[in-house]
Write a structure and sequence with these properties.
Blueprint: H1 2-18, H2 33-39, E1 47-49, E2 53-60, E3 64-73, E4 81-86, E5 91-94, E6 105-113, E7 119-129, E8 136-146, H3 148-151
Parallel strand pairs: 2-8
Antiparallel strand pairs: 1-3, 3-6, 4-7, 5-6, 7-8
């Protein structure tokens, strides 16, 4: 009888401890949690971007341009970014590979190598997330790249 009561007590405590917790996608199978979160459509979260378009102004040809896009997890579940693709090989993006918990913020940092690119520039980054308010997020940045001669004029 004591074993049954003790077993029920621990089961009850376990259920209470798990209630209202954020669902985690960590696993021992070697599967990226972002992939698992992308499949779990019933538990998608929401994202809010502080800005989706950036203007870097004028840059000198050959310089690297750094752009940061900030976001916040406005939903109830863990936010995962499963993929970030840039529109060209001259742009590389760095993004959080871990879960962004509800209420937390994060950022995607893009680096644009302007070598060989002059004139007006418009680049796009496509971000894939486990969010119900849009799975594919389109971020962009623009500006002008001038060679060193036209900068001195």
């Amino acid at each position: 009888m004591n074993r049954i009561i003790l077993s029920l007590f621990f089961s009850f405590c376990f259920l209470l401890a798990c209630r209202d917790k954020v669902k985690t996608y960590e696993n021992d199978l070697g599967i990226d949690p972002a992939v698992v979160a992308q499949i779990d459509t019933a538990n998608y979260t929401t994202i809010e971007w502080m800005e989706t378009v950036k203007d870097f102004g004028i840059a000198k040809e050959g310089d690297s341009v750094f752009v940061t896009f900030r976001f916040k997890n406005t939903g109830r579940g863990e936010l995962y970014i499963s993929e970030v693709l840039s529109s060209c090989g001259c742009t590389v993006a760095d993004y959080p590979r871990h879960a962004v918990l509800p209420g937390e913020s994060g950022e995607i940092k893009a680096t644009f190598n302007s070598h060989g690119n002059t004139g007006f520039i418009h680049k796009e980054i496509t971000v894939t997330t486990n969010t119900s308010n849009k799975i594919k997020q389109l971020l962009s940045f623009k500006g002008e790249v001038r060679d060193s001669l036209s900068l001195s004029r």
